[in-house]
Amino acid sequence: MECKIREWKMEDAAELASTLNNKNIQDNLRDGLPYPYTEDDAKFYINEMLKADKNSVFAFAITADHKVVGSIGVFRKDNIHSRTAEMGYYIAESFWGKGLGTCAIKQTCQYVFNNTDILRIFAEPFSYNIASCRILEKSGFKCEGLLRSNAVKNNQILDMKIYSLLKSDTE
């Protein structure tokens, strides 16, 4: 199964909606996504990503065999952190455990480091999300620590981990 990242297309809306209309995925993401997640929600998101500042937002569809199976984005921070970016991603549940997350993260980080002045990419998965933590580790990210009681999701106070990959780690 060939994994690639590519720019979003409006035609991806149905597959995106199908992927995100899943509580198991949304439970591992930050709040703010509607549930149920509709095709109109997907079109709105895709439109926002396509018109976003190309020097600050790097948002890609994750594809496997030409089918959209997830999303990955890297978002530049500002002020003294302007050369740091936060990454978020998810894979359709039916494609979990197939190496697509690791593949997409490696491609995305390579793209960002090769095409921008960003020096550091970080991610903050919930600490219970062992699969996401493992994907980051397999992609070369280092765990920098535990962020205790760092989030409230589904009325639960949760710890998060912080991982980073430096451009210098990849050279």
UniProtKB/TrEMBL annotation:
<protein>
    <submittedName>
        <fullName>GNAT family N-acetyltransferase</fullName>
    </submittedName>
</protein>
<dbReference type="InterPro" id="IPR016181">
    <property type="entry name" value="Acyl_CoA_acyltransferase"/>
</dbReference>
<dbReference type="Pfam" id="PF13302">
    <property type="entry name" value="Acetyltransf_3"/>
</dbReference>
<keyword id="KW-0808">Transferase</keyword>
<dbReference type="InterPro" id="IPR000182">
    <property type="entry name" value="GNAT_dom"/>
</dbReference>
<dbReference type="GO" id="GO:0016747">
    <property type="term" value="F:acyltransferase activity, transferring groups other than amino-acyl groups"/>
</dbReference>
<feature type="domain" description="N-acetyltransferase">
    <location>
        <begin position="3"/>
        <end position="163"/>
    </location>
</feature>
